[in-house]
Prior knowledge:
There is one protein chain. The protein has helices at 28-41, 78-82, 107-113, 137-143, 205-208, 222-233, 255-264, 266-274, 276-279, 293-304; strands at 17-20, 59-63, 74-76, 87-92, 99-106, 122-127, 132-135, 146-151, 172-174, 197-203. By secondary structure, it is an alpha+beta fold. It has two domains: 17-205, Sulfite Oxidase, Chain A, domain 2, CATH 3.90.420; 209-307. A five-stranded antiparallel β-sheet has the order 1-4-5-8-9. Strands 3-2-10-6-7 form a five-stranded mixed β-sheet. Strand 6 (122-127) and strand 7 (132-135) form a beta hairpin. Helix 7 (255-264) packs across helix 8 (266-274).
Amino acid sequence: MGGHAARNSAVLARRAFFVLNPGPMTSRHATAALLCALAASGTAWALDLHRERSSPDDLALTGSLAGVPAGETRYARWSELRALPTAELKLDGEFVKGPQSLTVVFLSDLWKALPVAPGSDTILATCEDGYTSVFTPGFISTYRPFLVLEINGKGPRDWPPKGLDYNPGPYVITVSAELVPAVARYRDVEHKKPWGVTTLEVASYADRFKPVFSGVWASLSPATSDGREIWINSCASCHEGPLGIFGGTKAARPFQVIAAYAAFDRPFFMNYVRDPNSLVPCAKMEPHPHYTDAELAGLIAFITAGRQ
Length: 308
């Protein structure tokens, strides 16, 4: 698991408020009222999709897009994403010290602007280094993740902002505990904050992850089912899963190898997941010290199910 050291430290909203663009808003109540009005009116914005990439800042779109042949990629220009309904987040300590302003589009609004094929419900994000994140409809509606388009009024061509020693572009997806307090209680929320995002895949969750809900994974205990959730929402950020399910390529370690480690030496596996560098000083995987013994037992049971 992992291989993405410190890559999620870019954004964690604090003392934030937001204003929906365009037009001035005088209070949070007015903002909320406008959001409700837009939702009630069913207002929709269509995003143009292009066959060719014109810039490194274009966002690649793949998957179940109506009118797009399977396996083909389309591209959205940054300027066209910027023309979608956006929010201005006023944050303190984002990316660099001090007050920051982020221009963002919520994934729920981006979804409405896409030609989503029937049956699709999930956004799968992939970063330029092979890191990935899964955004299910439940997560999108509950935690309100958003795509960062500008930092202090500057788009990705002018990133990184002064004081940041890495470039988080071309896109960042993140969530804010200030906007949605429940974010702070979400297990492994750092895995829902990918930066360097280059591609979004529109998918059916049931279809994309079908292999781990069938066969040896069809009837799992509650603990092993929870282990499957940990895999999909955490481990899969860096690792491809069994039987070709969606996952990252950052770690370049096959699922079968991970399963062998987990089956051969459970204590070592559990300790490694919690604190990789204590066992392997050069390990790049992020530590997960918050996992309980029960959670790790469930994860091991899921990973090793195919070996039984």
